[in-house]
Amino acid sequence: MTVTPAATDSSAFGEIAGRSDDEPILSVRNLSVHFPLKRGFIVQREVARVRAVDGISFDIRPGETLGLVGESGSGKTTAAKAVIQLRTAGEGSVKFEGQELIGLSNAKMRPVRRKMGMVFQDPYGSLNPRMRAGDIVGEPLKVHGLAGSKDDYRKQVASLLTRVGLSPGMSERYPNEFSGGQRQRLGIARAIAARPSLLILDEAVSALDVSIQAQILNLLQDLQDQYNLAYLFIAHDLSVVRHISHRVAVMYLGRIVETADSKDLYERPMHPYTQALLSAIPTPNPVHERSRERIILRGDLPSPINPPSGCHFHTRCPVATTACADTDPELRLLAENQAAACLFATGYDGAPRA
Amino acid sequence: MTTDSPVTSTPLLQVRNLRTSFNTPDGKITAVAGVSFDVNHGETLGLVGESGCGKSVSALSIMRLVPNPPGIIEDGEVIFEGVDLLKVSDKEMQGVRGAGIGMIFQEPMSSLNPVLTIGRQITEPLEEHLGLKRAAAENRAAELLEMVGIADSRQRLSDHPHQLSGGQRQRVMIAIALSCEPKLLIADEATTALDVTIQAQILELMKNLTSQLGTALLIITHNLGIIARYADRLNVMYAGKIRESGTAEQVYLRPGHPYTVGLLNSVPRLDRPASERLDPIPGEIPDPANLPSGCAFRPRCRWATAECEISEPVLEQVGDRQMVACYESNTVADSVEVAWR
User: Fold this and answer.
1) Which domain holds residue A96?
2) Contact A284 B264 (CB under 8 A)
3) Is there a contact between A287 and B249 if contact means CB atoms under 8 Å apart?
4) CB–CB of B270 and A296 under 8 A?
5) What number is the average pLDDT over the span B101-109?
6) CA atoms of B162 and B160, how far apart (whole Å)
7) Smallest CA–CA separation between B269 and chain A, in Å?
């Protein structure tokens, strides 16, 4: 029986990581992002701290997808922004291709960002409405000096558009002339233009209709296979996350409460929050639905400004005891490649095991 | 064509050949193009489809809340408890909204008045429709808040909407919608904007309350899972029309319309092994101002034949209570049964 304080011990995460034996492309250790909450008119005093991300650790290997799931206020988007250093300063360690990113100047971050693409939920809000599609997709090529000549630039843009399922003839159009699904394709083309090794996808398919969502998910899987891209896939939809992720980390109020290989997490969730989340998702199968047990959690999500003491989840947890209000459980390795932060979570056979 | 209903009683709501269109700069768009369905007393009916399929406009037309201009209900009947709502006066319609049919929308913040207290917003319909005095209405409002699971309901009556969380606001909306004990509750994407665990709470609450009160529930959503969990029957809409209807078992387990099959194959599902690839519907939703000839789904359909281009199939009975608008429905249903086995 091994109980590993995984949040601080990097070796535990080496074990949890999994698809290949490659070195992780992204290695996050004990990452925290705190926002000061200020009050006051002339002299601003810090009255509280929002611990948006509170000491999370994970690895992503080349060609692998890590799904980061959680509800509002879980800190999943803040974590992503801290990874790419987008107006969000984190504490802890974010190593990308061996280089420490925390504390890097903006000038030093620029070449790093070439290797990290980002795709957002609302393609309309993230594409410049006054730029033509071709320039939106080609801008990263110019910024990073990746196009040799004008002709080469045009060829690369055309090939990017084709790669994401748009026709090169569309390069003269403006974003408002595209449908939602096409705009997300444009966003993806722009994100892969500078040949990154990691894509951060923040609710990238959440706003799309299901038939279009499926097209985009397939496109993402094809691109991953073709370019050995690593994905940090952030979403609240657990069925989508299961479909695309090799490993999954579940966040609740700034912390990772469970992490495992995708298959294990969905077949045998160990944290009561993961169990409740999974049971809350209705499946499109009326026979299956009728026989399913539903765990309906009490109450609202607590505010991240003032999270509950001890285990953040204890106020809504169906199995919490008084101990949970006092003890802050650490992520423990409970099975091969599966760790949960719960005092009462056990391994497959009722006992914690490694 | 109508979706069938038990012969034992007259349906609570009968929508017949409803047509609603909008005048836009690009020309006239028919958002609802001849929709007919019934809602029986106490049942839960699902209306499912993607953006622009006309599901929300159908609901707004039933409530006569389509903004005019640019929208206009061109044709059809909406018979609620024997009365055609499209023919009654505005004043009579006001009485139906709330007292006869309650409605909940996606974004409670935009349906609640930000400057009025929660209490005032619940007591208003009680005074208006049920003629309660202020004190009696306030007592009833507190009871209603308790019923929808809001603690300290007395104190909460003096709160304003911004003081509540998204889930609580939706609970208040349910309290308002059910305050006059309507016979029908329409929930239009009522839980779409909520977090997963809160969504489950609100859906359970809605289902439990409507079954306690004997209220019929019309759930409008793009989420196939919600319909499978809660609806007895459902209608699948595409490009302004119902393309398939039936009981949940029939439509989910032996769908007869290629669009229904496409939808079910597009969603990643927790009830099946995580497969390598999804099987999406090719292409995109057609431009509503310029629909394809014949069947509107034809350009995206793998079963389409020459016939589909010439004339549009109408809803036809394929099983006991299942109806499909497709010439190839038998082939479709058989092939799906084989593929999913």
Assistant:
1) 10-115+196-269
2) yes
3) yes
4) no
5) 86
6) 6
7) 6
Task: Give me the torsion for CA of A98, A100, A106, A109, rounded to 10°.
Answer: 10
Calculate the dihedral angle through the C-alpha atoms of B174, B175, B180, B182, rounding to the nearest 10 degrees.
20
Closest chain A C-alpha to B230 CA, distance in angstroms: 8
What does each C-alpha distance from A27 to A23, A82, A117, A183, A232 come to in angstroms?
9, 13, 17, 31, 12
A137 located within any domain: no
Contact A280 B252 (CB under 8 A): no
> Taking a C-beta distance cutoff of 8 angstroms, is the pair A328, A257 a contact?
no
Q: Are B146 and B176 in contact (CB under 8 A)?
A: no
A347 pLDDT tier (thresholds 50, 70, 90): low
The CATH number that applies at residue B70 is 3.40.50.300
Return the pLDDT at B283.
92
A311, part of any domain:
no
pLDDT band at A353 (very low <50, low <70, confident <90, very high): very low
Question: What tokens appear for A102 in the block?
Answer: 């925390």
| Amino acid A21: pLDDT | 62
In a domain, A62, yes or no: yes
pLDDT at site B68? 86
Q: Is residue B331 part of a domain?
A: yes
Percentage of chain A with pLDDT > 90? Answer: 65
How many structural domains are present in chain A? 1
Whether A207 and chain B come into contact, CB under 8 Å, resolves to no
The pTM of this model reads 0.89
* Residue B313 structural domain: 13-97+222-340
Give the residue-averaged pLDDT of B191-218: 92
The arithmetic mean of pLDDT across residues B77-81, rounded, is 97
pLDDT tens digits, one per residue of A37-52 = 888 877 888 888 888 9
In angstroms, the CA A297 to CA B45 distance is: 26
Instruction: Give residue A12's pLDDT.
Output: 43
User: Is B296 a member of any domain?
Assistant: yes
Sheet with A247-252, strands from edge to edge, namely: A116-119, A198-202, A230-235, A65-69, A247-252, A255-261, A338-340, A332-335
Q: Are B195 and A181 a contacting pair at CB < 8 A?
A: no
Rounded Cα–Cα distance for residues B136 and B154 (Å): 13
Question: Average pLDDT for residues B146-166, to the nearest whole number?
Answer: 90
pLDDT, average across residues A248-258: 96
- Segment A156-176 shows an average pLDDT of 93
User: How many structural domains comprise chain B?
Assistant: 1
ipTM of model: 0.88
Which residue blocks in chain A are alpha helix, DSSP H? 10-16, 76-84, 106-114, 123-126, 133-143, 150-163, 180-192, 210-227, 238-244, 262-267, 272-280, 286-291, 323-326
**Is there a contact between A296 and B200 if contact means CB atoms under 8 Å apart?**
yes
Which of B139-147's residues contact partners 24+ apart within 8 Å by CB, and which partners? Answer: B140/B179, B141/B175, B141/B179, B144/B175, B144/B178, B144/B179, B145/B118, B145/B171, B145/B172, B145/B175, B147/B175, B147/B178, B147/B209
Chain A residues with CB-CB distance to B276 below 8 A: 221
d(CA A53, CA A51): 5
For chain B, say whether A262 makes contact (Cβ under 8 Å): yes
Q: How far apart are CA B235 and CA B246, in angstroms?
A: 7
Q: What is the CA radius of gyration of chain A?
A: 21
Task: Decide if A14 is inside a domain.
Answer: yes
> Of the candidates A181, A210, A297, which has its C-beta nearest B197's C-beta?
A297
